[in-house]
Task: structure prediction
Amino acid sequence: MKALSQRRRHPLAAFALLLMALLVTGGLYAAASTANEAQAQTTTFTQDDVEEGSKLFSANCASCHGMGATGSQAAPSLVGVGAASVDFQVGSGRMPMQMDGPQAQAKPVQFTEEQIRQMAAYVASLGAGPAIPSEEILDASQGDASNGGELFRVNCAMCHNAAAAGGALTQGKFAPSIDGTSEKHIYEAMVTGPQNMPVFSDANISPEDKQDIIAFLKTIEEQGSPGGAELGSLGPVSEGLFIWVAGLGVIIAFTVWLTSRSS
Amino acid sequence: MSSSTATHTYVPKTRVGKVTDYVDSRVGGSGMVKVFGRKIFPDHWSFMFGEVSLYSFVVLLLSGTFLTFFYDPSMAETHYEGSYLPLRGVEMSVAYASSLDISFDIRGGLFMRQIHHWAALLFVAAVAVHMLRVFFTGAFRRPREFNWVVGCVLLVLSLAAGFTGYSLPDDLLSGNGLRIIDGVMKAIPVVGTYLSFFLFGGEFPGTMIIGRLYVLHILLIPAVILLLIAIHMFMLVLHKHAQFAGPGKTNTNVVGYPVGPVFGAKAAGFFFIVFGVLAAIAAAFTINPIWNYGPYDPSPVSAGTQPDWYIGWVDGALRLMPGTIGDNFDFEFMIPFPWGVNALSLNVLIPALVPAMIVFTLMFAWPWIEAWVTKDKREHHLLDRPRNAPTRTAIGVAGVVFYCVLWAAASSDLIATHFLVSLNDVTYWLRFLVILGPILAFMVTRRIALALQRKDREIALHGRETGRIVRLPHGEFIEVHEPVDDYKRYRLVSFDSPEVMIPTPDADGKISVLDKVHGRVSRFFFEDRVAPVTPKELAASHGDHHGEIAGAKDRESIASH
Result:
């Protein structure tokens, strides 16, 4: 201890201390974040998957994302985006991107399940990232819909609409309707933050809470509309349009009929 | 009236007759029936929107009474235990929980909620269309100016009724609406914070507002609406209904059906039609799905948050208002007062108040504005066809366009997503349109009205183009014009077309400033005019057409054009 006390006024002591502090925080953070990710880490890929995925990637994705998925002027690097990101983007038809625009739009899926898995394996092999979620965590029947509803209204409804019907963002971007989106894609969207969506990491919304959100979305999707035709779930605008066009239209037809005898 | 004062000599013979006479001799019902039963209502489809709004109001009263049985306007906290699963156990106000109970646990409650809300939308829409009809046909002119004002107040009250009702379920959507009201109030300099604190009983949202809005919604506003409806109807009977000009329909009579029995029967039937249409809509189409929005909580705001349609234009104005111009000008001014500095937030006050002030001021004052321009003091019981008052019609259409652009702006986000355009571009376009749209609409409408008047004049003088081409013996081709019959022609020729009034000097040979202004406004209104066909012109053209082959003389008229 004498050596330490003698050197504590050494010019480099401050740097040494800083270095130590950084190492401790960084190490703790790394431990914490891998602990978070470990919960959803389920799928294991074989080396074959990675190699096939690499070929598919070079043929279909590399022109924008670059060889080795390191990114280019046209598209971001995919190192560290994880298998979940590939599964969402390619699995929902958003990638390969149909055209340049404010954001990638969903279209018919271009690859088979097998091919998507292989590409996911390749991208996952480039760096650690969110993995494809397990079946258990996606089971909507295990979730608490009312807790999910509260989380949805606080975290999601401002873009996706309280009834998950979608909404506008700036400059032509938009939050799509979540009606009909699979449990897996909902989960992956939350952990990867596709397009303009923020990432809801496991530290932000725990996997159980994500399951609750999925349970809420599936509940409102399956229950249908208790009050009759829902007019797009777009709120007072579609209601106003309806009463002016259909409601008043029918009424006017009746007024014309009632007064048709004279004039 | 005469029957009640006359000596009572009638002796009934049957039992029913005795009972009826007993009541009548004390109530004077036959006198009222005599007066009101003989009131004449002209028949035209566009005269029925007032009825539609009245009947919607009756539906509102009936369904609203049902809702009050089960609704609890309390903002006390509770945990929902009803049958709607996605909200079970969620913390919410009693008001929202009771609205959910009405929707899911009370038999017929959801239908009643939906018919009440749909009827509210139809009520305001019918009031608006009724007012447009009155405006565009000039039915607000003497002697009906005050009834127009009563109608305007009814419109304002129907907006108030709608907005207070919209807020009652205490769901996320209505809470967001109240938050905007709170923000607008707080933007009023000096007194804004106090106003907001008085209304909400403290800082927004507080625990008072729902109860207060409830009292306004079910007590004060409907009571005043009922009173004004009574005054409105009383004046309607007093003034008699206006009518469109036609053979035998003059400024001094009313041609139509008496209330008893024809119009009364039709009106009663029409009530059930309106009720039926509303019931069908309420049964098949959901409105305000409060279970989607969740309980009010000041932190979340859902995408697609809009007010009901009639408040939409104010929301649209708020959306269109730029927050800043350039990098520095932000419409906010700090005003130093003796007690400190107060903020003047024009970026909130301008959109929230100015469009409404313009529209409502013009609306309330219009009968007097137009009377000042035309200097017309006569009574008008004959309605204008909109084309025959081109400037008024054009101003009305400009107002409608102004309103509709703001209205559209309230759905700018949905325009963006559904037409795949950028939300920013929608906002920029609508900003231009809200200024340029009314001007363009004014010019185009006035031209169209004048063109239609010219067409009417042409048809009155020369008849309808039949499309039949006839070759005359000497080889000339002419198109046969078919003269219109007298009934149709009457409609085309009987209208006023005021001329420009040139200011005249007074006794001192001076023209006052007001007269000069009046002269200019008069020129603006009536400079472009199409004169109605005079009897002389008509006689001249009649000479053309009668007793000849239809086209023989027509070529002169064709040649002259």
